[in-house]
Amino acid sequence: MTMSYPSASFTFQSVSPPMQLPKPANLARVRGHHALNSKSQQSAWYPSRAQHVRISAAAAAELCAARTHTHTPSIKAAKPFRRLCGLSCCTNAVALGHAAVRRACTIAMCTADAGHPIPLPGMAEVLDQYGWMLELPLEELMSRAAVLRDKGQHNAIVSFSPKVFLPITRLCRDTCGYCTFAQPPRPGRRAFMTLEEMLQIAAQGAAAGCSEALLTLGDKPEDRWPEAASELMEMGFGSTIEYVEAAAKTILRETGLLPHINAGVMSEAELRKLKKVSASQGLMLESTSLELMHPGGAHHNCPDKYPASRLKTIEAAGRAAVPYTSGILVGIGDTRSDRLHALACLHCLNERYGHIQELIIQNFRAKPATAMAAWPEPPLEELLWAVAAARIMFGPNMNIQAPPNLTPLESAAGGGSGASSLDALQAGWRALLNAGINDWGGISPITRDFVNPEKPWPHLSSLAAATAAAGKLLLPRLPVYPAYLGLRGGAPQSTRHPAHPEGTAAAVRGELATKAPGTPLAAAPAEVAAAGNPLGQLSCGWLDFSGGRDSVGAAVLRSIDSEGFLRASAWVAGRPDMNEQEAQSQEQQERAQPSDVSRVSVSSISDAAPPPAASPWPPAAAASMAIATTMAEATIPTTTPAATTAEMGSMAATAQRASMPMPRWQEGRVWRVAVGVDGALEGMPRPLDPSPRVTRLLEGVLTGGRPLQRDEVELLLRSRGADHDAVCAAADELRRRTCGDIVSYVVNRNINYTNVCTYKCSFCAFSKGRTAEELRGPAYVVPYEEIARRTAEAWDRGATEVCMQGGIHPDFNGDTYLRILSAAKAAAPAMHVHAFSPLEVHHGATSLGLTHEGYLERLAAAGLGSLPGTAAEVLHDHVRGVLCPDKIDTATWLKVVGAAHRVGLRTTSTLMFGSVEEGPAAWASHLVLLRELQQQAEGTGGHGGGVGITEFVPLPFVHMESPVYVKGQARRGPSLHEVILLHAVARLALHPHVTNVQASWVKVGPSRAAQLLAAGCNDMGGSIMNESITRAAGAAHGQELPPVRMEEIIRAAGRQSRQRTTLYGIPPVEQTARSYGTVPLQPLVLAAASIGGLR
Ligand code: SF4
User: CDD domains in the record, alphabetically (predicted)?
Assistant: First the structure.
């Protein structure tokens, strides 16, 4: 049987009452455990299968009846349904007549926009498909669920969202029997939190490392409470939703916290409006049981709790491609079959839209002074059953959470009578992990759980300890989950429903999948993805990027690491280390910069960013906003826990204000969120031992086993905590065995002969188009005589290499590069010229009508020593389509470098990482391609001793001035954890074919480069003399690292230094001696490009 709910476009028509329905009294007898205020009904938590079937038949009939009810125009016809559903609208209808029926039905059923309702499963169908779970012993169900979870993308990570909870208003038009959140208006107390109050709390959260501002409120309070309507009017807003939109926009802009909005039942238009200012939204379905709407039921007199109304909002969120949170409430009068039905309805919507990013399985807690104060709370086993059922129904990749502050203390899993409450809680948490959850939901160091104020969130260390005891690593996330962030830049997704790629059929029949799934990107509905999303395949429409760098999408990208988890670390490539406070100040400055990207070279960016956002506030509210912002700035605490505590005191004092909520219950010290260099939460318990699979892979590499496969490299690139430490230790050991303790470097000079370029690389802050002289310094070319002068000067200063690259000047052809080479060789014949990227070689060859090999042979004959392996960026065409759409593709890059190897020219190899690509997957592909390229070179022999690639140079993306970042479409480069890990994994993945791994001090700074020496690196690159490309992107690590300083750094790292040539030979003694001199560099000579190319 199939149940569908009507769209808003239904027409009222007379229908006959469904005479076959059981009478309410019979229903009550069948479902006796729904009666409230009866502790004696505890056994009803475990009804038999037969009972479930009878219940489901009754419930199905009732659902149909209720659906019909919405079409009922007459008071006469409404009467039977009033008894069934108990909605106040029906009561009103009887009293007020036909018009009231229509109005009330519209409220209850049709607050969402018209759409194309999809068939939802009926109870009989649900039980037919999933009813077997009612019979399975709990232990077996949990075991299957946990195995399924571990086959998914979660990779031993259990996440939580560090947040602040902002109860914008506690007025609500519903009256749920279990709720203490909803409060009536009180004289002298504001109905809504002010902007000042919200910003003050959000600033506290930002300082404590939170990522989420949870905006939770009652449903449409202005419809019931005149006080709410008048206060909104005073502030200049027409509705609560308008106020929420403005508040979210301001919080995002002023604090960087990402709003997650729970604003109740909404229309699709309202959801789309809030999507522009939020990272995600949510609405608990709670239950599909209509019996809860009866008088005495949990949802009696709650128009917004009508299941069809909520399902309609959830479906509208799918059409709007909103990353959405939903879930069920266990124990409010529902049965296990009801829970299966509610989950199945959500599953059905997610099958179509793929938008349900997480399921909350929340247990009812009885609260004093509520209608359900005496209602029995469900035992832990009931919660475990619902969690396990949800996992099995939704598959391995769904995110399933259970709030840790609500975990029932009575525990079959170890919470004995003698155990402390924390011990019992932790036993409950472990049981929930064993039942298949992978997330703890939002937890705040600052605010209370205002829905359950009597249940404080646990301290992070307690939760981390319980999570670690289950072999999992606790990690902070954003309110939007990684699969919706558009970082998974692998193959375009073919499925709409990536959260459960293995489907549910196998799971529901107990045939658990055996293959490990990938890490899919959630693909938004095609109509949304195609509708003007500036990032196209990157974001797939889940996030809004329409505000450029001020958009919520840009804010999300600024906040994440390569896996989509919270980047809770101040370090970025290209910038000297700074503490958290300095980093926050820097971020504020970056965010405060106008959104006008014309100040940088944007010839490569076709669509200009929008102007700075206008104030979302009406004039009446805008006046208070300036004051609020000032106060928020004044109250942002310092970054130490002690200072945060002090601020909490200040906040408590402020809490006397009219609508300011009290801070959370203090449990000793206040915690803050920070991720360390090992990718795990700093100072928090974590599993002590590396995982068996990582251990096996590392042993295989160290014992000379087969090379790592692409998915194995990716797994290592996702290492955190103990796995990270094990990977770094293995890389260090392999480096020691392969290269010894010597750290090499080359004395060299960079010459970037022009910054004029016709290409449109979105990451490049160096290049200038023909008409871009006024932008960030002039366009230039370096005259031939200046190239010669710089080369000679470098030789005199002890250099053995000049490294020459530049933009692709429209006037350059293959002969130009040959003349550049000749100029350098003429000035210093013994100088090794390391020049011309594969892109330049390709350009030179095609401009002369030569093959790659033919042109490379001419370059080699003219004295070219080797090629830099740049222009590779990320060897993944999906990613290149965003980063460098008109550059040579992956195959051409490999072809040019392969040709160079065949003519005897050696090359370096590079990877620019941390901008827009899915980190681990794209990096793993890149590394394996490089290894295969080197294996080809070894297969063909080549000239001399060494062949092919000399070294691998990871190049962390420097974001500050990069156009793609300035436009709000890239991350802030890799995290320090990712930088360290990539160098270490490169050592392991390229072994034994590429033996040198270089740390780039230009990108990461000298001290961090020294740190990389303990993660598999054996080379520090060049002394450079003149660095301009990375500095153009905003880096501040200097232009030269003289040999004396270089060797100090290497010795301080406990290693021996050695100068080398480009090809890892021994430099001439006299050059080495010269290199320690202190001859200053002469001023550089440039020529304006507008006067016409090289002369
Ligand atoms: S990266 Fe190179 S090819 Fe691309 S725009 Fe910059 S200079 Fe030109």
Answer: Radical_SAM
